[in-house]
């Protein structure tokens, strides 16, 4: 049976990808960001996933304003890293476990989560940066070392799906994975965040106290975390902090009790607070 | 129809990109995103007015593009992930765009971020800004 053995939360700040691609991670600005990923890469080698279910958002790369799906599941055979205006990131093509993805799509719809199915999709930094964080430096000729099922969530146009809905979707993903009859190790990623605002006069907002409390309740009291309102995210964590609803999808797919084996928090990477968790699931 | 008050209207210095703004800014955003393709960047370089004319924008929106008035673009329905493509066209990186929108110099903004970012204290409600 397929098993979700871990949940990983990770910011997907584009500048983290740029720092790796330009080999400047040794610069003083970046050292404290990447130090926090050293443990993660070692842990990832020891607990190697067969499939990563990766929850992220597209930043108007695959979807422009003409189509805005709230939840879009990647069912294509592979996904090409997109050109976001500076040429594609020099990283491997992302390969799917297509049959498993189709099973999850079917299971979710029958479970009354009416997701959009993507049979063609390029993927942007929202998806490739967390893979780079966990799997380290890779060239386009390499293999990521895992198959990946992407789930794109709308967090650009208000309202994003609620924290509560994201959590419930995570629970449905868990049921879909549990009903897949293949002995594989699955990790689920919730990406984006933490506090940041990229726009207008309040740009640069960071709320470290709130971010740390959010990580605490997400890990230990998810029933509280799923009740956080959109207005609280906007006011306390900046207009782009709303990306943290995607961490709830990840959390919903895990047991009520999990073991936090790693936490990393650093301000800043460019305009953003970097947050990262590794949670082990025991069921 | 007038815009109904929203529960997030009292957050200062922030344009929440909701359905009203999305409707208002549709062609502005589609114009901006066109600039992620080199052929469109070339067209905009060659003849800015002709390239803008391909999108059904209002005169106000076109003027804000000509002026590179970054906050005005947001006010007229632009979204930052779109308007940042116009910034990139001009060679402005995201962090410098953020500095310009918040009325700070590049160095002051960068220093604020390295020192932990803009505090939420005093920045949660419009009423807190009016007192300043
Ligand atoms: Fe993002």
Automatic annotation (TrEMBL), chain A:
Keywords: Dioxygenase, Oxidoreductase. One of its GO terms (molecular function) is oxidoreductase activity, acting on single donors with incorporation of molecular oxygen, incorporation of two atoms of oxygen. InterPro entries: Xdiol_dOase_suB (IPR004183). Residues 8-274 form the Extradiol ring-cleavage dioxygenase class III enzyme subunit B domain. This is Protocatechuate 4,5-dioxygenase, beta chain. It comes from Maritimibacter alkaliphilus HTCC2654. The lineage of its organism: Bacteria, Pseudomonadati, Pseudomonadota, Alphaproteobacteria, Rhodobacterales.
UniProtKB/TrEMBL annotation, chain B:
Pfam families: LigA. Residues 28-114 form the Extradiol ring-cleavage dioxygenase LigAB LigA subunit domain. The keyword Oxidoreductase applies. InterPro entries: LigA_sf, PCA_LigA, Xdiol_dOase_LigA. One of its GO terms (molecular function) is dioxygenase activity. The keyword Oxidoreductase applies. CDD domains: PCA_45_Doxase_A. Gene3D superfamilies: Dioxygenase LigAB, LigA subunit. Keywords: Dioxygenase, Oxidoreductase. This is Protocatechuate 4,5-dioxygenase, alpha chain. It comes from Maritimibacter alkaliphilus HTCC2654. The lineage of its organism: Bacteria, Pseudomonadati, Pseudomonadota, Alphaproteobacteria, Rhodobacterales.
